[in-house]
Specification:
Length: about 270
């Protein structure tokens, strides 16, 4: 009868506990995705609407209940339209399985070489678009430019963006420690509330960040400001140190990889 007792323990104790743990993990991971985008506003709004509905139900406010029931279907459509970039980013993250991994090791992008070039371009007010490719494939973007498959170096980046070459108006795509392509065209952002002063580079960077998990580094030709676009958001006018720390986190670059980059530059 001992095995029956073990089955009872699993059914009445372990299984409910396992159910709670799995559900808690899923809720936490979804929150981690939401908190990086404007979709967190969607969660707050939904919570507020639910609270109002519950109060109206218990207080028997028939008119308010009738209005909210009638708006329920319309609100779903409105949310799907307004938060389309955020919802797309959420499902893209879930689809590539990244939310199930606790940690993954990034690829070295010769970050110091990239940032050295960016700092020079910023000082000269030369516009630049640099795409760090992650999990979502960018084949369609890469094919719009000129294939290079060259090692990442400050001099090459400065050559592409520092002079009026045929490739300087597009973006370069970095992947696997190489500059895969240059002169690439990026999709423009669909967000309606983007600052009007932003030019095509910023809109293109944000557009790619809305559709993929890529991280895009932008140098403004008008002001020399350095910005980052990722997770359907644009972070404008950052310092080089802020960009370095953010890229290390997003690209998952560790200390030993930084040492390897430094050794490569010195050599």
């Amino acid at each position: 009868m001992e095995w029956l007792n073990q089955i009872w323990i699993f059914r009445d104790i372990i299984r409910p506990l396992l159910d709670i743990l799995i559900l808690s993990f899923i809720i936490y991971q979804i929150y981690q995705i939401l908190v990086q985008t404007r979709a967190i506003q969607l969660v707050k709004g939904a919570f507020l609407m639910t609270l109002i509905y519950v109060l109206a139900f218990f207080l028997e406010l028939s008119t308010l209940l009738w209005i909210m029931n009638g708006l329920a279907t319309v609100l779903v459509i409105i949310i799907a339209i307004v938060f389309q970039p955020e919802l797309r980013n959420i499902f893209t993250t879930i689809g590539r399985g990244e939310w199930l991994r606790l940690q993954n090791r990034g690829t070295s992008y010769q970050l110091d070489s990239v940032l050295n070039a960016v700092e020079v371009l910023s000082g000269r007010q030369r516009g630049a678009l640099i795409v760090f490719s992650l999990k979502v494939g960018l084949k369609n973007i890469i094919e719009t430019g000129t294939r290079l498959n060259a090692d990442i170096s400050s001099s090459l980046i400065l050559t592409i963006f520092g002079h009026d070459t045929p490739l300087h108006d597009g973006a370069i795509v970095l992947q696997g420690g190489e500059i895969i392509s240059a002169g690439c065209f990026l999709p423009l952002s669909e967000q309606s509330d983007i600052r009007r002063s932003f030019g095509t580079r910023h809109r293109a960077a944000l557009g790619l960040a809305e559709e993929t998990d890529a991280v895009v580094l932008i140098v403004s030709e008008e002001t020399g400001a350095i910005s980052l676009a990722y997770n359907a958001n644009l972070y404008y006018d950052l310092t080089v140190q802020e960009v370095r720390l953010t890229l290390r986190r997003l690209l998952n670059i560790h200390e030993d990889e930084r040492e390897e980059e430094g050794a490569a530059i010195e050599s």
